[in-house]
UniProtKB/TrEMBL annotation:
The chain crosses the membrane at residues 9-27, 67-84, 96-118, 138-154. This is Signal peptidase II. The keyword Transmembrane helix applies. One of its GO terms (molecular function) is aspartic-type endopeptidase activity. Pfam families: Peptidase_A8. One of its GO terms (cellular component) is membrane. InterPro entries: Peptidase_A8. Keywords: Membrane, Transmembrane, Transmembrane helix. Coiled coil: none annotated. The keyword Transmembrane helix applies.
Amino acid sequence: MIRIESKKTWVGIFILIAIEQFIKIIINNKFLNNKFAIFPPLLYFEPMFNRRYSWINSMLQLGNGKWIHIIFVTVMLILIYWFYHYLTMELGNNKIINVMFAFLFSGAICSLIDKIFWNGSLDYILVNGLFTFDLKDVYINIFSGLLILLLLSKNKTIKQIDDKNLLKGFTKYIIRK
């Protein structure tokens, strides 16, 4: 059962990444100079390249370069994978954790692809007056929303997690790696 669910999770990750990259390739090749309202006056299709590599780097004008971001995202990907593996060892196979991992890991992989192959992020949905985002940002926000719902719910998976031992156990797990 764990193997089947794990395969479904990895297939889901592959599909999410493929959808995000396919959309960017289409936009870059055919719609890069197009702009139109989706839900005026709030949402607009307005493609642009974010060459600052991250939202924090853009907002705080940090000026951190491409390689710092690539290294950071790579380290985060490893930690996300290890934490997912640790959780599945501790809690067993859990659909909500698999779905959350799929969205977070897909978003992180897409972020790494952006930095390496796109030299930034091709963002295309403008929230008027605020920011421009892409599908990878939606993936990461879906993860965040699911995490909040899981924490607020009376989910039996959350009840199994002992907050104090979670960090200690994960730290020991990493050290054994």
